[in-house]
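Handoff note, outgoing to incoming analyst
You'll be picking up this chain. Sequence as last confirmed:
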Amino acid sequence: MFRFLVLALGSLAVIAGAAPPPPSAAAKADSFASRRQEAHAALRERLEKARVNLAEAQAARESGGMALPEEMQVVQRRFPPLKAGQAAPFPNCANRKDPASGSLVLICPAQVPGVAYYERQRKLDDDLAAAERELEDAERAYRRGVD
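Most recent structure output, in case you need it:
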């Protein structure tokens, strides 16, 4: 095998000698194929992590549907007053005088989810949407083979 040496004057000189040494292990480790395999493994790991995050977010959303006791609030539901001999729709309802109008109204207290419940649901929905976006990005990156 011949190696060529370009001299300062621009002429070409042929130097007979052995072939260049094989690339070292460090050079092989830095090769394009090994970098691509490492990138592919990192992308696969990112994809699996995104899938796990999505499954966790879906499970949290499904299990968080019911309002917790501390998220409930009591409201007064107002109905027309009861007529003579009529039974109240709920045992805790009572005819009371409305302070605003002065007329009789049937007031029934009821528990409904409060602001904390809806904030928690919104956070669960946002977490689920973020996990879905993360999975979409990871799938797109994995298909393209780029980080």
